[in-house]
Amino acid sequence: MKVEFTRHGGAYDRGSADKYYGRAFAPHYYKGDTLQSKLITKLNSEELAAYTKGYNEQTDQKDYGSL
Question: Are 9 and 48 in contact (CB under 8 A)?
Fold first, then answer.
């Protein structure tokens, strides 16, 4: 997988984070760092595949009950 997808803010990273935090499947990524750069919501097939893989491969979820 391309490094651009796995970097912080990339499509795989965002998919993984969404699943971890219990958010809905909503494909997106950031051009640079998360929340510090342009949000991209129209993904090409390769970017969508990376987001989906990140979402599906995340097996851990944040435990909000232990706050």
Answer: no
User: So where are the chain's domains?
Assistant: 3-57
Decide: 47 and 7 in contact? Cβ < 8 Å: no
Tokens of residue 31, six digits: 């051009």
Report the sign of the C-alpha dihedral through residues 33, 37, 41, 43, in that order. negative
pLDDT tens digit sequence for 21-52: 999 999 999 999 899 999 999 999 999 999 99
Question: So what's the pLDDT on residue 1?
Answer: 77
**For residue 6, what pLDDT is reported?**
87
